[in-house]
Amino acid sequence: MKIFRSLIIIILVLSLFVGLAACGENESEETYAPTDAPAETTVALEETDPTAESGLQGEIHVYSRDASSGTRGAFEELADFEEQLTDNAILTESNGDMAAKVGADLLAIGYVSLTTDFAANNIKAVNYEGVEPTEENVLNESYTLARPFNYVTRAAGDFGDADKEALVAAFIAFLTESVEGANAISSAGGIVDVSSKRAWADLQADHPVVSQDNSGIEIVTVGSTSVEKAIRAALETFQPMAGNFNFKMSHAGSGEGPAGTVGEEKDTAKKGDIGFASRAFKDTEEVILGMSTGTFCLDAVVICAESSNPIANLNQSQTAAIFKGEIQNWEDLD
């Protein structure tokens, strides 16, 4: 009997031990359930995604224009960092080149004309000092990164042809005085007060050259790349109203506007009949020599970034610090 009882006790102890071991194995399986995997993936994404909730992170890629650009000159003057651009800036060749390159770089910052097609280039406008860059805000002067679009023609008697000279004078009147010219400029993003203009029908009598066949005349425009869109719209609108003349646009920068019409390049391959600048003319640019010179519209210089960049606004001190290279990383912006 004693032996029998001992066997029963041994069997009961062994059963209890086996049960406890089984419970331990079940607890281990629950500990390593796959519910932990998504948590690890989420952390990894947060660490590598530059547009996480904390804001964009990484080195700021500063894009600018070459030294001959009127847009660059106006931007540096208006944002108060003239001739202090960081040596690390990536220089672009034109307004369109700037827009395309900024739109392809998440970490980029640059500046373009308000006439730019922002959506087509995958870029967004950044407010300046809390003010949105719009036509209305330029006209009411609340948006302060605004500049003139200026023009200058060759000197009277220096066009090589009397009819071309008369046609250029007619186009300038159309561009600066007519409702139709103002509407063409406005349709291309230029800022102009249309209400102050007159119908072309009331002006064309002063320019009889527009009533003849001008298909043998070619008007050449040179200068700022930022004005191209507005000037092309005006020329295309005026063309059928003025004897179907031809035109050629050769724009490489504001400096070439006065240089190619009244300056050192006026008799070279870079010459033009009308020169344009997207800034005020300099004292050294003798535009007073031209048959006509003035402002045909206003424009806004717009700070731009790639469309998914969360930046919405910059003030003057932040803007200057970024383009001077004093703020080099997106996470360092206040």
List the helices and strands and how they pair.
Layout: H1 2-31, H2 36-48, E1 61-65, H3 70-78, E2 90-92, H4 95-103, E3 108-113, E4 123-128, H5 135-139, E5 146-153, H6 162-177, H7 179-187, E6 218-223, H8 228-238, E7 246-251, H9 256-259, E8 274-277, E9 293-306, E10 313-314, H10 316-324
Parallel strand pairs: 1-2, 1-3, 4-10, 6-7, 6-8
Antiparallel strand pairs: 3-9, 4-9, 5-8, 5-9
Uncertain runs are 16-49
Provide the gyration radius in Å. Answer: 33 Å
In terms of structural class, how would the helical and strand content be classed? alpha/beta
Q: Give helix % range.
A: 25-40%
CATH topology of the largest domain: D-Maltodextrin-Binding Protein, domain 2
By DSSP, the count of extended strands is 10
Order of helices and strands: HHEHEHEEHEHHEHEHEEEH
Largest sheet: 10 strands, mixed
The structural domain count equals 2
Q: Figure out the total of helices.
A: 10
Strand content: 15-25%
CATH class of the largest domain: Alpha Beta
Quick one: overall form? elongated
Distance between the termini: 88 Å
